[in-house]
Amino acid sequence: MASASLPNPSLDITLTPLAGEAKTLRQWLTTFHLGSVVLDPYTNESSWILETAVRIMRQYSGAAIRMNFLITCEAEDARAFLGPYADEFIVFCDPTRSAVKALGLTELPAFLVIQSDGSIPAVAQGWTAGDWKEVAAKIATLTAWSKPSIPASGDPGAFRGTPALV
Prior knowledge:
Elements: E1 2-3, E2 14-17, E3 23-24, H1 25-28, E4 33-39, H2 44-59, E5 65-71, H3 75-82, H4 85-88, E6 90-93, H5 98-102, E7 107-108, E8 110-114, E9 122-125, H6 129-143, E10 162-163
């Protein structure tokens, strides 16, 4: 399910990274936009998209955006699910799904961009290559960066996500 945008979330929601201290969304957005892939590590759907998400996120290495994972679990499970990617990307843990709820997400996996003003101009929920391509294009436009190829060889077929709020 794709949507052009979601309502602006509260800039006071807290995002807790694996490394470092928790900060509000406002603080995370001080310098850069956020490009977030939101995953539930306890579902097949999130595991199916992990390699594709990593490939897309790597495209923006060096761009003026903080690419990150928002994982709906505690830190230990996030590290187990992400393996070496937990050290490559910013990882936020949201075991209570309060950030997921505040962002207005209904299905996971999800891919969204949060601009430095707190607005969400593009979001994709579930996996459809075209929807994720639209979010990637928005990030490329915002950062004056090149777009990744979506779909690419090895990407999964389209699938609906699982409920974001359980």
